[in-house]
Fold this sequence. Notes:
With 84 residues, the protein is mostly helical.
Amino acid sequence: xxxxxxxxxxxxxxxxxxxxxxxxxxxxxxxxxxxxxxxxxxxxxxxxxxxxxxxxxxxxxxxxxxxxxxxxxxxxxxxxxxxx
Length: 84
């Protein structure tokens, strides 16, 4: 009976390893899909819109005193998260 238990345990370990490898492969594929989605033209449009609104709000709150710095920060953020 011990031999059967050992074989059963070995089978479980192998199945767990296989499942983990499969999950890792799927996660890698999902990560690539997410990366591609974030670099799409639609994502660029959305990020530009959000950044423009944030810059407008910052300028409004500061009375445009720091508009040059706000624009520089907006442009730096766009480079970091956009594809253009």
